[in-house]
């Protein structure tokens, strides 16, 4: 009798304030490797997000077809490794843009490994077009009326424009 392999699940954590085309690029790459990717809005205590959790979930959901059952969006206020274990995920996906990301990502990955050895961190290279973007840089450009088309999906651009037009 042949055993059925359980689906491979990865979690992709981040602040997603807001989701950018760079994040979407990483999610699409992860979907080539894993059966399912859970995009998790996690708390980075160093950050004060511009968008509420509900707004961020909504913007992420709008990036993908609602019928795509290989993508799930969730939130956690706890440790990402605990979330991964609870959701039978074997890996945490993180995107690398430039060498400057490496130090922090290396520390994060080693701490996560220390906390939970069953979950591996997998680094994926961001597409070249997205190497120089980050949510903060995009928010700053939008705040000053800069053109951010092409670096975020249209609905995110509209949400940023609305946020900043309200002052
Ligand atoms: N394209 C564009 N930008 C990207 C990107 C990509 N592919 N990948 C990352 N970025 C940017 C993000 O926009 C973000 O920009 P910002 O700093 O201007 O907001 C930055 O790179 C990194 O953010 P992100 O990937 O969202 O990570 P984070 O550092 O905000 O979040 C957590 C880190 C939330 C995943 C981490 O703190 C965590 O796991 N928290 C839960 C508690 C926990 O388990 N901690 C670890 C053990 S102590």
Using brief descriptors, characterize the structure shown.
five-stranded parallel β-sheet; binds coenzyme A; alpha/beta; 39% helix; Rossmann fold; 167 residues
What would you say this structure looks like, in words?
The protein has 167 residues and is of the alpha/beta class. It has a single domain (9-165), classed as Rossmann fold. Helix content is 39%, strand content 19%. The protein has helices at 21-31, 53-61, 80-86, 99-115, 135-143, 154-165, and strands at residues 9-14, 36-42, 71-76, 91-96, 120-125. It has a 5-stranded parallel sheet with strand order 3-2-1-4-5, sandwiched between helices. The longest helix is centred in the middle third of the chain and has 17 residues, at 99-115. The protein is globular and about 60 Å long. The model has no long low-confidence stretch (mean pLDDT 94). It binds coenzyme A.
CATH architecture label name? 3-Layer(aba) Sandwich
Uncertain residue segments: none
Q: What share of residues are in beta strands?
A: 15-25%
What fold name goes in the CATH topology slot?
Answer: Rossmann fold
Task: Output the radius of gyration.
Answer: 16 Å
Bound molecules: coenzyme A
Order of helices and strands: EHEHEHEHEHH
Main beta sheet: strand number and arrangement? 5 strands, parallel
Task: Explain the layout of strands and helices.
Elements: E1 9-14, H1 21-31, E2 36-42, H2 53-61, E3 71-76, H3 80-86, E4 91-96, H4 99-115, E5 120-125, H5 135-143, H6 154-165
Parallel strand pairs: 1-2, 1-4, 2-3, 4-5
The structure holds coenzyme A.
Coenzyme A (COA) is lined by residues 13-15, 17, 20, 22-23, 26, 42-44, 47, 79-80, 95, 97, 108, 111-112, 126, 130, 133-136.
């Amino acid at each position: 009798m042949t055993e059925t392999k359980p689906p491979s699940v990865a979690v992709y954590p981040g602040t997603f304030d807001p989701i950018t085309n760079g994040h979407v690029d990483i999610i699409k790459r992860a979907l080539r490797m894993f059966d399912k990717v859970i995009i998790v809005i996690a708390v980075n205590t160093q950050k004060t997000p511009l968008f509420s959790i509900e707004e961020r979930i909504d913007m992420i959901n709008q990036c993908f077809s609602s019928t795509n059952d290989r993508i799930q969006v969730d939130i956690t206020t706890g440790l990402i490794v605990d979330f991964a274990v609870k959701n039978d995920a074997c890996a945490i996906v993180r995107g690398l843009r430039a060498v400057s990301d490496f130090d922090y990502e290396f520390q994060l990955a080693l701490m996560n490994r220390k906390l939970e050895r069953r979950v591996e961190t997998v680094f994926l290279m961001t597409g070249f077009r997205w190497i120089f973007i980050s949510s903060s840089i995009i928010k700053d450009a939008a705040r000053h009326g800069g053109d951010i088309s092409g670096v975020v999906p249209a609905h995110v651009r509209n949400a940023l424009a609305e946020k900043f037009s309200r002052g």
